[in-house]
Amino acid sequence: MPRVPSAAAAHIGEQIRAIRVGYSMTHDQLAARTGIDSSNIRSYESGRAMPSVHTLIRIADALDTEPGRLLEGVTLEQFDGGVNGRRAG
Q: What's the whole-model pTM score?
């Protein structure tokens, strides 16, 4: 099943890109530091894919930042379905 981008994925990708660029780091350098393929890094930064929690932590560690910084500003409404998309558990 193809990944569906969301506003949350785009926001997280923007955060990753801003920090990476702030360190003058290339996609390939971040890929080498994380062990994540550079094409996946590009997909996260463009918002085409949402990184898993594990991947987000690996990226944050490589960028010498807290994982929460990459999530700052993310709201439930940015995910497909928003608040009304919640399922009863």
A: 0.84
Tokens of 88: 């009863």
* DSSP state at residue 46: H
d(CA 17, CA 14): 5
Tokens representing 33 are 């530091």
40 residue type, one letter: N
Q: Is residue 81 part of a domain?
A: no
89 domain residue, yes or no: no
3-state secondary structure of 48: coil
Write out the residue range of the structural domain in which residue 65 sits. 7-69
The Cα–Cα gap between 17 and 23 comes to: 10
Q: Is 35's pLDDT higher than 70?
A: yes
Q: How many domains does the chain have?
A: 1
Q: Alpha-carbon distance 10 to 20, whole Å?
A: 15
Token pair in block for residue 64 = 């010498």
Question: pLDDT band for position 11 (50/70/90)?
Answer: very high
